[in-house]
């Protein structure tokens, strides 16, 4: 027989099913949040419920896999901006990418804002993203294009604040968050502003969310 062999068929099916599951789960979690059932995800993917558990031992593992994909995408965005000549513009691009993900994905917001939903790999990925945000922010401080008392953690926390501000408008105006992002960014780009009245946030501990839900 020409074509797939008996040995290759199961492997090909496993790869296909995992791809279908991730695609279905990504869409379902983005739309409905973390309360989507594994049964609904299996139905969307067109596979049996048992197939889901053969690939992911629990819903938490599946949710972590999807969240890690989004965090890795944001981290790659940071890495790609580190060599930019205009550090403030690079910081703005990172903030844009971050709020865009929050506005588009309900489950991502819930996981980022609730430590109880965070797999240890997700926590590590969040910390790496915060470290990258600090490098971007430090470059902008050095160039004198943002306030000297702003930290990368301030920037990461602002992403959640911007999203929360625009959240009531997003159903009717999906791009409304861009207005509040610009307002926040303009506030960062005022090097001669009055000093902030409270110390910068410390690095997060294991039970603290970096972005409000």
CATH fold description of the largest domain: Tetracycline Repressor, domain 2
Approximate strand percentage: under 5%
What's the number of extended β-strand segments? 0
- Based on helices, strands and strand pairing, what is the structural class? mainly alpha
Would you state the CATH class of the largest domain? Mainly Alpha
Number of domains: 2
- For the record, what is the CATH homologous superfamily label of the largest domain? Tetracycline Repressor, domain 2
Q: From the alpha-carbon coordinates, what is the Rg to the nearest angstrom?
A: 20 Å
Task: Show the helix and strand layout.
Elements: H1 8-32, H2 38-45, H3 49-55, H4 59-81, H5 87-104, H6 106-113, H7 120-142, H8 152-166, H9 177-188
Helix pairs in contact: 1-2, 1-4, 2-3, 4-5, 4-7, 5-7, 5-8, 5-9, 7-8, 8-9
What labels would you give this structure?
213 residues, mainly alpha, Arc Repressor Mutant, subunit A, Tetracycline Repressor, domain 2, 2 domains, elongated
Protein model, in words:
The protein is mostly helical and 213 residues long. It folds into 2 domains: 1-56, Homeodomain-like (Arc Repressor Mutant, subunit A, Orthogonal Bundle); 59-213, Tetracycline Repressor, domain 2 (Orthogonal Bundle). It has helices spanning 8-32, 38-45, 49-55, 59-81, 87-104, 106-113, 120-142, 152-166, 177-188. α1 packs across α4 and α4 packs parallel to α7. The protein is elongated, with a radius of gyration of 20 Å. The chain starts with 7 loop residues before the first helix and ends in a 25-residue tail after the last helix. The mean pLDDT is 88.
């Amino acid at each position: 027989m020409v074509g797939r062999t008996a040995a290759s068929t199961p492997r090909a099916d496993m790869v296909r099913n995992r791809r279908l599951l991730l695609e279905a789960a990504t869409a379902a979690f983005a739309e409905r949040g973390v309360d989507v059932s594994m049964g609904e995800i299996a139905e969307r993917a067109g596979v049996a419920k048992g197939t889901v558990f053969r690939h992911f031992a629990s819903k938490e593992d599946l949710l972590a896999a999807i969240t890690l994909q989004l965090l890795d995408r944001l981290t790659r965005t940071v890495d790609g901006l580190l060599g930019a000549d205009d550090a403030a513009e690079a910081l703005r691009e990172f903030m844009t990418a971050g709020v865009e993900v929050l506005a588009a994905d309900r489950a991502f917001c819930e996981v980022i804002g609730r430590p109880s939903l965070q797999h240890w790999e997700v926590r590590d990925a969040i910390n790496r993203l915060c470290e990258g945000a600090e490098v971007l922010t430090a470059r902008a401080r050095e160039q004198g294009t943002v306030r000297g008392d702003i930290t990368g953690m301030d920037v990461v926390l602002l992403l959640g604040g911007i999203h929360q501000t625009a959240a009531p408008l997003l159903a009717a105006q999906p791009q409304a968050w861009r207005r509040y992002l610009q307002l926040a960014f303009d506030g960062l780009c005022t090097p001669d502003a009055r000093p902030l009245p409270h110390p910068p946030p410390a690095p997060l501990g294991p039970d603290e969310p970096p972005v409000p839900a």
